[in-house]
């Protein structure tokens, strides 16, 4: 069975919203966009490519899919964009009419949990998810996330979207940890039953 791996940039208070750009996601009046930039280290990109190499599909919520697709679809001759443009993508949305805006995408519009269970049961490599706070909370509630690959940033923002649903206990086993020179801690955690 395929695994779902959640890869996130996350603050000490669990915020994942708008890590890369000031106006990336201002929902709820969020004004802390681009909070990851002062902490960049090349190992962060290397960790993403390592995780990405184990996957053959992305599972994203509508907003994350639109942000990624708008930025990456027009890019040419960029290894990062080429890799993400080429992989199969599943976008969860009840409002999108089609998934044509980003190549190799398919929309999941109903029975999301059942459809994700079917995806996990198919042969193939892992399924990667990032951003997508609403979707990932739902996946966690239904015990569908197998691993978390987190870059934990040494700051507290005090508000913003998170991926961990209130009231849901998760037992996790730390399988890898590395402190980067910028203070970011990279962790891989596996869900335990």
Automatic annotation (TrEMBL):
GO terms for biological process: riboflavin biosynthetic process. It comes from the Bacteria. Gene3D superfamilies: Dihydrofolate Reductase, subunit A (3.40.430.10). InterPro entries: DHFR-like_dom_sf (IPR024072), RibDG_C (IPR002734), Riboflavin_Biosynth_HTPR (IPR050765). SUPFAM superfamilies: Dihydrofolate reductase-like (SSF53597). Residues 2-185 form the Bacterial bifunctional deaminase-reductase C-terminal domain. This is Bifunctional deaminase-reductase domain protein. It comes from Leptonema illini DSM 21528.
């Amino acid at each position: 069975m395929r695994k779902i791996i959640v890869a996130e940039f996350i603050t000490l208070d669990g915020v994942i919203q708008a890590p890369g750009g000031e106006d990336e996601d201002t929902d709820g009046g969020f004004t802390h966009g681009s909070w990851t930039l002062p902490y960049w280290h090349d190992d962060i990109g290397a960790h993403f490519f390592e995780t990405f190499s184990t996957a053959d599909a992305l599972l994203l919520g509508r907003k994350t899919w639109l942000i990624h697709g708008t930025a990456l679809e027009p890019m040419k001759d960029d290894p990062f964009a080429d890799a993400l443009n080429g992989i199969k993508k599943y976008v969860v949305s009840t409002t999108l009419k089609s998934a044509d805006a980003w190549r190799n995408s398919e929309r999941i519009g109903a029975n999301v949990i059942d459809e994700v269970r079917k995806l996990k049961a198919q042969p193939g490599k892992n399924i990667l998810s990032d951003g997508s706070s609403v979707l990932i909370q739902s996946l966690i509630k239904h015990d569908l996330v197998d691993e978390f690959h987190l870059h934990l940033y040494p700051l507290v923002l005090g508000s913003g979207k998170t991926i961990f649903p209130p009231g849901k206990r998760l037992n996790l086993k730390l399988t890898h940890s590395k402190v980067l020179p910028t203070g970011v801690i990279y962790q891989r955690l596996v869900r335990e039953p």
